[in-house]
Amino acid sequence: MAPRNQTCALLLALFSILSVSVRVQAADPKYIYGTDGAGVTRQLAVNRYPALYTGDFGDCLGGQSLFNITKFDAAYYADNLTIVFHLDGASNIKNESLMMHISVEAYGSSRFDMTFDPCYLNIYSLCPLNASVPITGWAIIPVGPQQIGGIPPIAFDIPDFEGSTKLQIFANSSKTEIGCFQAVMRNGNTFSHPEAVGPVLGIFTLVAIIASFATAAYGVSIVHMRMHYAHSLSVFVVLETFQAIFFSGALSVDWPSILVAWWSNFAWSSGMIYSYDMVHSINLFAGVTGNASQVGGAGSVVLNNGGGLISQIYGRSLVKQAAASITRRSGYNASNPYDYTWSGNPVTPGMPTPGIWPGFPGTLSSVGIPAADAFLVGLIWLLIAIGLVASFIISVKVVLEGMARIKWVKEDRLGYFRSHWTRYLILALLRTFFISFFMTMTLTMFQFTAQGPTGPTAIAAVVFALSFVGVISLVVYACRTRTRYGKFELGPDKVVFHRAKLARFIPGLVLIWASTLKEHELKVEPIFTIPLFRLRHINNDPACVSVHQDESYIQRFGWLSARYRRTRWWFFAYYIGYLFIRAAFLGGGARNPLAQVYGLLIFEIISFGTVIILNPFEGARNTALAVWMLSISKIATTGLSIAFLPEFGLDRIIATVIGVIIIVIQGLVVIGLLVLILLSAISSWMSLSRNREEFRPEYLESTRVRYFETMEKKALDTFMPPKPKEDKKGKGKEAEAPETSPEPSFAVMSVRRAPKIEDEDGDVLHELEPAKNASPTRGAARARRTNSVGSVRSLPRSVHVRRSSWSSREFAQWEGELPADPPDGSFASRLSSNNGAASGSGRGENDSIDSIISSPSARAASPFNSGRLTPTKEVLARHAEERRYHTPTPKSIPEIE
């Protein structure tokens, strides 16, 4: 027990020492009293977060400020109406008295400005400025409600507050601006969460990749594998959606801060993933120079002020190496109760001035990547992605082989993939190369437009040539392989616009080729037509199988054509051209904003109409995402971006509102995409269970059956004529029959039976006598006898039976004499078909009885085929009396037309 007690005592002592050290390191918080604009006084912690505070800062004189600044922090505290700023740095100016001006700008308007002498605020390191004294400026400026009245209260809560704080320094002797530093303002709320949103979107993308790969690898029949693969969600479309959202920021307009923050969540899909080591190593090669630990140009840049400034106020010398006294900003000190964590850092060299977000460089600044580094960063991450894809295919192969060897899975599980894994590997790499085409073209063209150093531009030229020539060659080869045994025919045709219902209830215009109407003998009411030319391919071999039945073509080029309809298998060729032109607008049009924005908008509208007419995808989910959701999002984003053109000078508050609208549109697309990924995972699971008779959960069994039926129906890609219109007066009514010319007709409403010669059959007179107590089913029996008469009268005269009226008792007796299981199955099938027809025509059971009476077998089994017997007068009288008072109801009489 003694050693154990000693151990416990030692642990308690160590814990006490650690607790004391923690208390020493984390000093007790300090409090002050402050009064807000409403006159409320309260106790406040000195290390609290301010209502507005600065982030990263930069030199707003383009690197010509005569200071090297390592810290520039400013904040506004609404709870005690004070503005605080902190400035650390150094300068080469020997001796100069200064004036300073601080201003706060929010949403394009100046909300606060103040000019002051640093000596009056006890900033002794600037009073006067001396190169031998490091700059350490700290000031608290009280303000009144009138001074800060221009800042609306919503600014303290709205995400991604758009504003900046600017500090300008002037030399008194020359009255010239010698320093300017600007920092972006923040309030702590933002849409930018790439560390959280990026991994979530990446997980969903991985689910889509696994679901798509599973449908492509599972199965034996290549044709069926293609059919199931076509209905999984395309990874190409998923990544294109994310890339389209991020590259919306490549337009050369003045973006609101809220949009730039939103787009940072999708930068990973375009290869814009920040890594300090990667960016730092690329900067020098890409021509980005500067010190990331400070901003300003003291000791390295000669200020061009018209002459006289150097000799008037300071002596500038590069020999003294004043910058040697500059040290990196110290980190947060928890033991100092007056220290804070909300401060910003000097901007990375090559970044735009904080507080403005111009074009693609402004979009890239949200993820910390200089515009000059964008192409090389994207290229490196693309090579990493290609390596990950190759590793994934090889890992799946190795894992499956290992599991099969230890009997964890069946020996033939995914046998086709395991025996052709090298082909899957090559096609997966080609697919990755194909998916990255748009990103590569956009970044290379942007590199050409930026006119950077020779090295990165030369690499961009090589990558551009390889990507463009490689992808175009693959597309041409795939199309030529399928069309080499035939010829193309260009002929005139017309596009017919006619009214129709979209989604069954939205009125709209529908386009269809006039040749399609003629081929299927359809009639529509055209509103107008546009004469065009239509290119057709005529195969020399009429017996040639369709593209989705050609196993050899699917194995070689299914990664390009498998998801498109049988008649639109070539759509990948069109889409590559579309992506290239779009990349040319975004990457190559950066120097002409008007042509870039308006040209891209017109091109997107034309492409949207084209893809609607073509309707290329076989799967409904791919159609919903690529044809409708993504296209509408592109058009809306580009159209709304016109308002951000610098020529319009739009109010920044209105610009922020438009930015919120764009975020809502793109956010709905992202939510829809995530839902489609989940549905695709479920449908892929159904596809993997297509060889099982049982499916769990059971309530999805009917859904799985309908899914397979729909899949097989869509694989045929045959023209489906429009359904007939439903009656507008109410639901459940049958469709209106087509108008036909009126024909003469009549209907029998009642029949009165009179005695006939055939009633003289003596052997069944007792069957004709009415019962003493009339049966309630006598009316139905009369109806059946009447139907029997109608049935017999429809026979030729030579085959009429001797007696045309049977009673219900006779039918019951005759049916009982029939064999339970007749040897000829055609009778049962005929009876079943007649019953089905009767239910469809609304005549009930009578049609089946009529068919039995009309059949030769029924007449042979009838007891009335014997010779005639003459009944007595009493029997005839009773029979006539019965007929007179039991008239069949009109409902049971069949209508004769």
Tell me about the biggest sheet? 8 strands, antiparallel
Number of helices in the DSSP assignment: 27
The strands making up the biggest β-sheet line up spatially as 7-6-9-10-3-4-5-8
Which percent band covers the strand fraction? 5-15%
Mind telling me the C-alpha Rg?
43 Å
Overall average residue pLDDT: 78
Distance from first to last alpha carbon: 111 Å
What coarse outline follows from CA principal-axis ratios? elongated
Tally of structural domains: 4
What does this structure look like?
The protein has 897 residues and is an alpha+beta fold. It folds into 4 domains: 31-189 and 295-358, Sandwich (Immunoglobulin-like); 194-288 and 370-483 and 554-718, no CATH class; 486-539, no CATH class; 757-892, no CATH class. The chain is built from 27 helices and 13 strands. The protein has helices spanning 2-25, 194-217, 222-230, 235-246, 257-263, 276-285, 309-313, 359-365, 374-405, 415-419, 421-435, 437-450, 454-483, 514-519, 551-561, 571-588, 593-614, 620-641, 652-688, 701-716, 765-768, 778-793, 808-817, 825-841, 846-854, 856-861, 873-885, and strands at 31-35, 41-45, 52-59, 67-77, 82-91, 98-106, 109-116, 135-142, 163-171, 176-186, 486-502, 506-513, 526-539. The strands form 3 sheets. It has an 8-stranded antiparallel beta sheet, with no helix packed on it. Strands 12-11-13 form a 3-stranded antiparallel beta sheet. A two-stranded antiparallel ribbon has the order 1-2. The longest helix is centred in the C-terminal third of the chain and has 37 residues, at 652-688. The radius of gyration is 43 Å and the shape is elongated. The model is unreliable at 7-26, 299-330, 728-737, 763-804, 821-869 and 887-897 (pLDDT under 50). The chain crosses the membrane at residues 196-220, 232-253, 374-400, 421-446, 458-479, 569-589, 595-614, 626-645, 657-682. Residues 50-192 form the ML-like domain. It is found in: Membrane.
